[in-house]
Amino acid sequence: KDEELVRQLIEQVEEKNRQMEQKQNELDAAVREKSTMEAEMRQQLGTVQRERESLLHALEEERREKAAVCHEKQRENAILEQEKATLQQQVESLRQNVRQSNERQQELEERLDATVAATEELRHVLRQSEEVLNIPSRDI
User: Fold this and answer.
1) Are 44 and 94 in contact (CB under 8 A)?
2) Each residue of 77-97: pLDDT tens digit?
3) In this structure, what DSSP letter does residue 1 have?
4) Nearest 5°: phi and psi at 102?
5) What pLDDT score was predicted for residue 15?
6) What string of DSSP letters covers 38-96?
7) Is 129 exposed, middle or buried (0-12, 13-18, 19+ CB in 10 A)?
8) What whole-number distance in Å separates Cα of residue 13 and Cα of residue 136?
9) Distance between CA 67 and CA 75 in Å, rounded?
């Protein structure tokens, strides 16, 4: 009877270990995915900033060269408005990426909470095993 109880407890512990390993693998994959997404976002932000600086520099040069011609000023203003709209779209896209990253982070935190809960459950099973068998968990 005690052997059957020990066998059942060992099976429970092994199953919990498998579940914990699976959850850890999922969490690791999610963390890698989040890191990749953050790296892509940083790269996109750097590209946008470099493009913006480059465009603003080019526009400033053009403005100095053609400041005397009113028609050119109007054309340049139209170009600036178009680029501003493009930059605003890019900024909105980056904001959306940040929101998605935050949602993903929330999901990861929820998974982490579930993993912590499962760990506590496993600890409880181990404590029960220790009590029933009078064997410290390190000897199981």
Assistant:
1) yes
2) 899 999 999 999 989 998 999
3) -
4) -65, -40
5) 94
6) HHHHHHHHHHHHHHHHHHHHHHHHHHHHTTT-HHHHHHHHHHHHHHHHHHHHHHHHHHH
7) buried
8) 14
9) 11
